[in-house]
């Protein structure tokens, strides 16, 4: 099976089957992160199940699959993520959270722009470079290059790297993120796809670093314009945002992280969802209602 293209899906099915085997005797609820793979098990067994969606949902070919399991309670990681499937049984949106002590707060801004993540066309590192060149602020790129994106890097991005103004530092570890993001003037997040969440943004906020981003996907939900950064789909406005970035309070960025994006808040919201689902299932078994109904729970 090594290298088989369907190995990941096969393993997910195996894990779901194992979890649902005798689940009623072991669990009150199953929380799945396997996308739609657990839906048939939930329906057949009647086991109370809630599923967090982690990826993009705008693939039209998957629409009929979701519609066949419209009763399954779903959790989105941003409101924008659920827009392609408004008919589904959305319980709530639960933002990702990080431990508050994972990344260090840096009160003083640095002198370079930061790009972090993965080199890929939908991440638009080319646009990050363009913004850096136009704003005349150095850019450091900390990103991995997957095999599938090697040609894109070699043919489109590598020729644009011009040290010391445009510096490619490669992939960094989690331990390096505090220094890399904390010492930056701003994180440049110029995505060109409906990003369901974008962990890099809250990692930057945890370090006190504001974010300059394109207004795609979850960006307007996570970054408050003029408060924790700037977002726009106009390149000139993004360039202008660099000159205004010192108007953003780095302490306000850190405060926003602690108020909205710490792991304890994420866990507490999930626990409320579990409680409501278990209660709804108990009512269903008592024949008081026909199907579980979950009240919206905001994190």
List the helices and strands and how they pair.
Layout (H helix, E strand, L loop, with lengths): L6 H14 L2 H4 L3 E3 L6 H7 L3 E4 L10 H5 L5 E4 L12 E5 L19 E6 L6 H11 L3 E6 L5 H8 L8 E3 L5 H9 L3 E4 L9 H8 L4 E3 L5 H4 L6 E3 L3 H10 L5 H11 L2 H23 L14
Parallel strand pairs: 1-2, 2-3, 3-4, 5-6, 5-8, 6-7, 8-9, 9-10
Helix pairs in contact: 5-10, 8-11
Description of the structure:
By secondary structure, the protein is an alpha/beta fold. The chain folds into two domains: about 5-95 and about 265-285, no CATH class; about 115-260, Rossmann fold, CATH 3.40.50.2000. Helix content is about 40%, strand content about 15%. It has twelve helices and ten strands. The chain has helices at about 5-20, 25, 40-45, 65, 125-135, 150-155, 175-180, 200-205, 220, 235-245, 250-260, 265-285; strands at about 30, 50, 75, 90-95, 115-120, 140-145, 165-170, 185-190, 210-215, 230. The strands form two sheets. Strands 7-6-5-8-9-10 form a six-stranded parallel β-sheet, with helices on both faces. A four-stranded parallel β-sheet has the order 1-2-3-4, with helices on both faces. Helix 4 links the parallel strand 2 (about 50) and strand 3 (about 75). The longest helix has 23 residues, at about 265-285. The chain is elongated, with a radius of gyration of 21 Å.
Elements, N to C (H/E): HHEHEHEEEHEHEHEHEHEHHH
Largest sheet descriptor: 6 strands, parallel
What is the first-to-last residue Cα distance?
41 Å
Shape: elongated
The CATH homologous superfamily name of the largest domain equals Glycogen Phosphorylase B
Averaging pLDDT over every residue, what do you get?
A: 92
Query: What spatial order of strands do you see in the largest sheet?
Result: 7-6-5-8-9-10
Which CATH class of the largest domain is shown?
Alpha Beta
CATH architecture of the largest domain: 3-Layer(aba) Sandwich
Structural class assignment? alpha/beta
